[in-house]
Specification:
Largest sheet: 7 strands, mixed
CATH superfamily of the largest domain: 2-enoyl-CoA Hydratase, Chain A, domain 1
Strand order of the largest sheet: 3-4-5-6-9-10-13
Structural class: alpha/beta
Number of domains: 2
CATH class of the largest domain: Alpha Beta
Number of helices: 12
Radius of gyration: 22 Å
């Protein structure tokens, strides 16, 4: 609920700052409208200027010369999409009736560290499933669950049932590789079953004005323990570069829990709650509006490092073994965690 309230605050801040200036439905008008929407409401300008030198005013100069009267929609879409790509943000999209502008550099430029044929060798075909979560017990008495999306609503009772099934296991592997996000409440519900006390897991802000640095004070994100079953043994979360958005938040929460280790690759990130707007020609714009941080007040927009960096190697692949799953199993069997 607290995340919904923060989202509403972001929405109110956005709608209260909408420009009275009207732009024409021309290539130039759509360009100006898009640049202005982002300039006033996107939340990572200061951070990305620090990280890689992003200068939004220079971006304006760079792309305005590519706009001309009479350019067709396909060409305009390409130019505007290229401009948005300068933000290097998977939450920034532009939607027309025939295309979607997106930036997936957070995952495309790195090894996948997930091979579905290997993963299926572990989970088999007789796995149990609830709310899209597939789970089974591996042959060394380690519980394994695969969560491929956060889009499905997950109830605390569903997690209680899974943990009850794993009651006699030595530990649990929670595989969220390839999980691009979904409902942020799911991240909180899942993580709440792995702590016995309230934890400060991070912070968030919302925009208070149109300036690049106009934000509210940081609001604490507190993870409360579930009132249902709570796991008391070791757990390992598996990650790769496709872990994004709400799932990135889940990893952030789990990193704060006792007896939990993160294994695999750095996550993809996506630490801004997205909002939507529209330019004169009707194309829908999505963008990051409310920034989120870890417990040390560091942005996780470009991802979270694992406790143990592990890649799938060729030798294991040829043996039909998933290096990352095997590493997690070894941690649990040795009784090790971060």
């Amino acid at each position: 609920m607290k995340y919904l309230i923060s989202f509403i605050l972001c929405l109110l801040a956005f709608t209260s700052c909408v420009d009275e200036e009207q732009y024409s439905d021309t290539p130039r008008g759509n360009f100006e409208a898009l640049w202005k929407i982002m300039d006033q409401h996107y939340c990572f300008f200061d951070y990305k200027k620090q990280v890689y030198g992003l200068d939004w005013n220079s971006i304006y100069d760079k792309y305005k010369v590519r706009i001309y009267d009479g350019m067709n929609d396909d060409r305009l879409f390409e130019v505007l999409g290229d401009m948005l790509g300068e933000l290097r943000d998977g939450h920034v999209n532009m939607y027309s009736s025939s295309n979607v502008a997106r930036n997936w550099s957070f995952q495309e430029d790195y090894p996948s560290n997930f091979i579905d044929t290997l993963q299926r060798a572990y989970i088999g075909t007789n796995y149990r499933m609830t709310c899209g979560i597939k789970y089974t017990i591996l042959d060394d008495n380690i519980g394994y669950m695969y969560i491929g999306t956060m889009e499905n609503s997950i109830g605390s009772g569903n997690i209680d049932d899974i943990l009850s099934y794993f009651e006699l296991c030595n530990g649990i592997i929670i595989d969220v590789r390839e999980n691009g996000g979904g409902l942020i409440d799911n991240a909180e519900i899942l993580a709440s079953h792995f702590t016995n006390k309230e934890l400060l897991v991070g912070y968030m802000q919302h925009k208070t004005g149109t300036g690049h640095s106009d934000f509210s004070a940081m609001q604490e994100q507190v993870l409360k323990p579930s009132s249902g079953l709570r796991w008391q043994k070791s757990a390992v979360v598996l990650t790769n570069r496709k872990v994004y958005s709400a799932t990135n938040e889940f990893v952030k929460y789990m990193k704060c829990c006792d007896k939990v280790s993160i294994v695999g690759d750095r996550t993809g990130g996506g630490a801004g709650l997205p909002l939507n707007s529209e330019i004169p020609n009707g194309w829908n714009i999505r963008f990051s509006a409310c920034p989120m941080y870890d417990k040390d007040k560091q942005s996780t927009e470009f991802g979270i490092d694992p406790d143990y960096k592990v890649d799938i190697n060729k030798t294991d692949f040829l043996r039909n073994k998933d290096t990352i799953i095997e590493y997690a199993r070894s941690l649990i069997l040795k009784g090790k965690y971060k």
